[in-house]
Design goal:
Two copies of one chain form a homodimer. With 631 residues, chain A is of the alpha/beta class. Chain A has three domains: 268 residues, Alpha-Beta Barrel (TIM Barrel), CATH 3.20.20.150; 136 residues, 2,3-Dihydroxybiphenyl 1,2-Dioxygenase, domain 1; 190 residues, Roll (2,3-Dihydroxybiphenyl 1,2-Dioxygenase, domain 1). Helices cover 35% and strands 25% of the residues of chain A. The first copy, chain A, has 21 helices and 26 strands. In chain A, the strands form three sheets. A nine-stranded mixed β-sheet of chain A has the order 14-15-16-13-9-12-11-10-17. In chain A, strands 18, 19, 20, 21, 22, 23, 24, 25 and 26 form a nine-stranded mixed β-sheet that branches. The first copy, chain A, has an eight-stranded parallel beta barrel with strand order 1-2-3-4-5-6-7-8, surrounded by seven helices. In chain A, strand 10 and strand 11 form a beta hairpin. In chain A, helix 5 packs across helix 6, helix 9 packs across helix 11 and helix 19 packs antiparallel against helix 20. The first copy, chain A, starts with a strand and ends in a 10-residue tail after the last helix.
Chain lengths: 631, 631
Amino acid sequence: MKTSIATVSISGELPDKLAAIAAAGFDGVEIFENDFLAFDGSPADVGKMVRDHGLEITLFQPFRDFEGMPEPHRARTFDRAERKFDIMQQLGTDLLLVCSNISPISLGGVDRAAADFHELGERAGKRGLKVGYEALAWGRHISDHRDAWEIVRRADHPNIGLILDSFHTLSRKIDINSIRSIPKEKIFIVQLADAPLIDMDLLYWSRHFRNMPGEGDLPVAEFTRAIAETGYDGYFSLEIFNDQFRGGNANAIAVDGYRSLIYLGDQVRRSPGAGSLTVAPMPERAEIKEIGFIEFAAADEEAAELIATLKTLGFRKTTTHRSKQVDLYRQGDIRVLVNTDEGGFAGASYAVHGSSAYAVALVVDDAKRALERAVALNAEPFSQPVAPGEVEMPAIRGVGGGLVYLLDDKTDLGRIWDIDFVPVTEDSGVESAGLRRVDHIAQTMPYEEMLTWVLFYTSIFEAGKTPIVDIIDPAGVVRSQVVENVSGALRITLNGAENRRTLAGHFIAETFGSGVQHLAFDTDDIFATAAALRRNGFRALHISPNYYDDVEARFGLDPELTERLRAENILYDRDEHGEFFQLYSPTYGEGFFFEIVERRGYRGYGAANAIFRIAALKKHLRPEGLPKIIG
Amino acid sequence: MKTSIATVSISGELPDKLAAIAAAGFDGVEIFENDFLAFDGSPADVGKMVRDHGLEITLFQPFRDFEGMPEPHRARTFDRAERKFDIMQQLGTDLLLVCSNISPISLGGVDRAAADFHELGERAGKRGLKVGYEALAWGRHISDHRDAWEIVRRADHPNIGLILDSFHTLSRKIDINSIRSIPKEKIFIVQLADAPLIDMDLLYWSRHFRNMPGEGDLPVAEFTRAIAETGYDGYFSLEIFNDQFRGGNANAIAVDGYRSLIYLGDQVRRSPGAGSLTVAPMPERAEIKEIGFIEFAAADEEAAELIATLKTLGFRKTTTHRSKQVDLYRQGDIRVLVNTDEGGFAGASYAVHGSSAYAVALVVDDAKRALERAVALNAEPFSQPVAPGEVEMPAIRGVGGGLVYLLDDKTDLGRIWDIDFVPVTEDSGVESAGLRRVDHIAQTMPYEEMLTWVLFYTSIFEAGKTPIVDIIDPAGVVRSQVVENVSGALRITLNGAENRRTLAGHFIAETFGSGVQHLAFDTDDIFATAAALRRNGFRALHISPNYYDDVEARFGLDPELTERLRAENILYDRDEHGEFFQLYSPTYGEGFFFEIVERRGYRGYGAANAIFRIAALKKHLRPEGLPKIIG
């Protein structure tokens, strides 16, 4: 699979863009005209700079408002094309992208357009250049790739071909099967972009909301599969217009883009009939069976506070590490490690980010293969020295500052507890609260990085994503999206914060690192758990009584149940699958907290309750100096 | 005009919201249920808090999915309503907003809905409460206020009335004339919101893009006029869902909201037939005749650099202030004051913001009336002591940290130059560059504050606004909107920056204050000006040669003209009215610069050239440490 990306897709000036694109691993780059025009160097300089980066220029674009122009505009348009051909020859690229005409003075007619393209093909051919025609979804006369293809067919010129763009085809819901009848040699290049499904004006949607394949909701893999079945083996090139990407980190966006293409190629490679699309084989997406452990790096009073909180939650210290200052606290299938060692990654993480849940271990079907896939998708492998005889755990760096360990039970990795740890007997003085397993892990990040996290998880692991929902914090909107697998073993809620006065924004401004802001544990009986927690001295987050009046009216609850909810500060929700109960801790430090949930068939995450628990959680931040909203 | 705003319109927790709403001058507040539910106090507490602020609760909302429910849902819906009535009585409000049903299980039928409302009216009436019905633009069966009105009419109950909302009516382009036949006593309240014209899903548009009347593109004044003609004299209440407002400064947003209502009332008051809408009369919007002067506060080397630059631009010092260190530099009708006085507002501004064009004087038809109007619209008047015999200039504070002086020629204000200033004779050693007048003033602000500036200028002065256009900076998108009057005497380009790595974002992060980032001067002959500037030692901003090849091809320019443009680094644009020429200085300090333009009928601002001049301008910032985009 030959990979390319348009310079317009990422932020920066042309040299910065090219450096980021080359570093991310792309083979080629589309030179977007404005990036070239703003650059203070000749076309030949740009061409050299591109080739010095080991990149090929896949095309020069866009050439607008070409076909169907009445005279005298028509003649001028051809002159204009000749000037672009001059530049292309100096740049060192042979393909010009012509997008369908949007000019109000342009004339319709397939034959007229075909004749124009035939003549353009003649002119291009004399210079050894080619022209590809792309149907813009909002083109004046041509807005469907099937019509563009008919024009290319009638132009009947070897130097004239078709350019397909997933956004233009999929945004108009054009049958992608129509691609399968196009001869591969007439497809000059394929552009790819995804987008979230929001019903709006196509041009506005395209200009502001495009994102990388796999980050949105369009069936880009289906589209690519249809392309591959034609036998097409040319470039797949990303052309993404996105306000966040324009203002984002060029390197990070380029890495995302490359990952999205590799992941797409991998999906398509597995399809029957897609033989022409060659991608380095990699293991399938890893299936996550459970959360192996969550490890905190902490020190001093913060470690003491964390351990005290874990105890009130009913956790007991069961084992301790042979050679490091790491203790395992356990309850049900939940394992929480508290690492107070000053050395290693944990110590370094603590030094930079303060106390945090810096590492999450995922138990997968095959850790070695999971690591292999992650690395094939450009995730960064991680290892650190272990004492002789101790288990080396495969790991990758997460998107933020955290670690993701990959464990399985096929190798001795599953036996880490037996080898590296020794049992302790300690009377914690608390009773179990009946917590069974990790329900979900909530990670917070700046909103503009949320798509990076989504792509990271869903490309490496067998998991899907839910639509983005808006969570209302009193100080602003937080976007929330869930990555989850079918079994429910993996459930990660991602919260993209737009300003630092929100609870989420405050947390990342102050600590960030792994981004783990809260952990939700599952119980089979929230009321029994609440009672046990109370006896352990746990103080639940206080919820406004007004909430309970509404919940009772809204769901038609038995007043007795409402009373129990209110007494224990338990939040309630319901969907078509069942009921949901949530109990929160106050916040610790800069906004970390625990949640306890009981699911009676319910599949969501209590988004409707978020505004109430956030308002309550923020009260605990105030004294520590959360910036006031007013003023 | 009785003013109200829904708590959902601004950021913060309930007490913060109420404080901001009361401080801004509103008479009433809609309690949005979630704000109430998240608040840890009883309904009576909330009611008291509202009344302690001198506010009235105009309504409680929203009550969803009421009408047309099949049993057993119907009975539960009535129970739910009774619970809300309980809360309303404790809150101390008599109006409940019911929005049209969106539930998939709801049944249609005007008579069924009318019967439901009749019964609800009976129940409300027993408690002395009222219910208003609002057609959501995306309601399942009812999405048009005319249908909602038919249901209210058939419900035929004194406690059931209609709620009109400008967004729901105008977003669906429903004929507003249909409002004029509704009896005023059946309109229980009127909600107002504006929005930019973007074609998208109505719910998505409503939830994210609403803004204050006058900030968007909907004909809210026409809508309000129709309401006023019914004789309606109740509350006009803002209900604005906007992501920026949710994350913004509550006080500033509330002030904007109040200003938008007063301005709206003033517009409507002037219409024949709108007698019922009483608003304190204020002078009409001030007509701006010219830019009187622009005043810089500067000191030391920065002042010297500014003066040296003004001289290379062909300005000459013509007069100096009698009692302050203020010199007037003049060319054509352009007056630039350089204030190096340590005292007064200029000195204070310099101390806080560094060198900047901190004040702009607008020459209006009647300065006293302009000031009166500005104050009526809650602008803050400004004055500082002047020496005996000197002219006191009326002024208001701008939205940022700057000042706006209001001058006219009816009073002695026009004679300021004769009274406060004395002529100097100084050989500047430079020749005039033929600059005639101020073409436009460019102000930069954080994007989320741009609407505040638009409303400030357009409500006080006779001016319109253009649609927002996206300006592409290599480091991100900058939104640009122009406030201008018909004569062209007032032209202000507002640039809303979203991140500080853009040229605009860098400027406001480092200096802000008045936000004046560049001044554009007008010439009748850009080539003559360019030649004179060269002779004066002015160095124009270097533009990439690539730009000129494209401009020649794009506009079909005579190669000789292109060569002259290229030689002088002049940018070119054209619209249906004529040609445009632009010449830039490099940036000074943190990103301030000058522009020189020649308009040959052209009406725009060269937005298509922005990407090229921004890339060039940023090169001059680099050495001073603009954060790198990459990394």
